[in-house]
Amino acid sequence: MERPVLLAAAAALLLLLPGAGAAVTRLRVSANFECRATADSTLSRPRCRRPARPGPPLEPPALALSRARLCLPWQPCQPCLRVRLALPAAGLGDVRGLQLNFLELGSNRAGWLQVWRRHWAPGSSPWQVQFDCFPVESGQQVLVSLRTIPDRGLAISRSHLVAAEPPGPVFTHAWVPEARAIEVWVPEGPALMVRLCHQLVLECEELPRPFHQQLTLPPCPQVLVLGGRRVSLPYEFLVPCLCIEASYPRHDSPRSKHCPFHDQPATYGPELWSSVRFHDYSASSKDQMAMVLSASCPLRPRATLCWRETAAETAPCHDVPNSTASEEEQVYTLDKVDVHPQLCFRFSYGNSSHVECPHRPETAWNVSVSARGLQLHLHLTSSIPAAFSAVLCQRRGGQCEPEAPLYTVTQPESSAPGELALLLPVQVLGSCVLVWRSDVRFARKQLLCPDVSRRHFGLLGLALALGLVVTVLLLNCRGAWRPAAGAPGGRPVLLLYSPDSEEHLGLVCALAERLRTGLGCDVRLDLWEAGGVGRAGALPWLYAQRGRVGRQRGTVLLLWSRGSTRLFRRWQVGAADGTPGDAHDIFGAAMACLHGELGAAGCGGGWVLAYFSWFCSPRDVPRLLRPLPTYRLPRQLPGLLGALRGSPPAPHRCRGRAEGLLHRLLEAGAGEGSPRPPRVAAGT
Length: 684
What we know:
32% of the residues are buried. A five-stranded mixed β-sheet has the order 3-1-8-5-4, with no helix packed on it. A five-stranded antiparallel β-sheet has the order 2-7-6-9-10, with no helix packed on it. Strands 13, 14, 15, 17 and 18 form a five-stranded antiparallel β-sheet that branches. Mean pLDDT is 76; it is low at 1-25, 214-220, 453-457, 476-489 and 649-684. α7 crosses α9. The longest helix is centred in the last third of the chain and has 24 residues, at 453-476. The protein is built from eleven helices and 38 strands. The protein is α+β, with helices and mostly antiparallel strands and 684 residues long.
């Protein structure tokens, strides 16, 4: 839908909603034709519109003046001069507009107003115009003259004396928040008519039902309060334009009004946005966000974009830079937006704000991702022609950092809505992908991490292969691996690692399980003792386990990987700065412990380092740690088991049979779609 149609629909809605059509924000010109108005600096620019309920027409040519009251927001009411005029349609030729000139004779204060007809139609109905209204002081004489634009010789002048107005009635009030009401006291003397109302520009409008009429003499929506009495007036919402108005119970009585909350945002802030209704029109356009506000008060909040990480209403909404929406007649629009339920408007007024998201839960496009071999397959479905971009990213510190290159696919404007596909290479295990609509200015990037269920078969195959190799070694060489007499179990093993990926973590758990069940080792693993780590803390838990392993002549097994190298370098930087990060991190605490032992003894007694060949290489082991006994898995698995048991390695025939079985299992797992590790020749 085009923007003019949207604005027309929104305006129609505002006129139908109770209290919304009267929300005037400037001085007002009413005419029976499409018009626009301009004025000099003494008058704020009036708004020109057709009257909702036109009164009886004047007989042209005519210029009528009458007294009125101008009640601007947060200012005391003052007298003003209302102007009504009528011009005949015939005999004016190509008249495009008219000009009213005002002169306050006592002070020589002058001003002018011009009203232009947007569309000229010869032979149309007479012009009927009303202007509310020219501010004037009480007791002053005002001269008003009328001429046409261009001047066709028609000139009308009138003068009016604005009589002095007697002072309005006096009252006092108090806010009773627990009763959601305002108490009004009337002093001894004549009775007063009092009411609560919402101050607009030219009038204070009555509250909506059922708050519009209380304890009153029908049909007047006010309360008659006798002198010396009080009354409690309930309200629906505490808003800045909520006012108390009092008058004497007679026709055209002077009025007194007080608006106690307009300058107290801390008081009305919690209820301000509850009084506003939001109407979402974003579904009418493929790339425009649009919302219409209808409120009790003539608010003009500022609207900007923000995005939520989740659909929950309590989720924080992050601001989008340079995304201020345009506003016209309470209609807020922003173009070039990928409309999404989590890409929202943040409305700000004073020191309070409110987030309103599109009311439509579905999106114009969807994407799914799947892993196929060493590629990610993006499947896009879109109901609108659009362009989409994607980029691989790696999770680091709670963020996913994009990595070049950028991949883009476009659905042409002339094509029918349908499906698109995009293939991305998988650079490393655990890769995620950011996808967004790239043919708009504002779009929320969607993060997808591929379903690695197919890759779980590879992980399962690797763990199964490792377990079977250990079992074969134990069965074929049971004499060499039998626990020492008198020992209830094998020697304790403290297993340390860096949590790089799901595959590496699975191998760590598989190795720990086989060491415990097959070799009889007392394996200490933080994953199995999460409660103890949480109660004691990473550093105390690690040092307690290291002391226990040392006393029982056990081994600390450090499983190395490329991720361990990155963490080790980060730990070294922290240690050099005097702020090592070893208080909350098991790996950092282990490096601090190992560094202390290497420095004291010159070698890491009781420490063993091992790495899986498809997650690491000898070059990844830091030079500082190379003096430690190091084993490459799976090729040197028998040697590692011997080191943990404290006995010589298994015979060569056991080693050869186990490695041959391992390679056959790994090759079978790779054929089923698992990530295939580098091929290693048996016996090398």
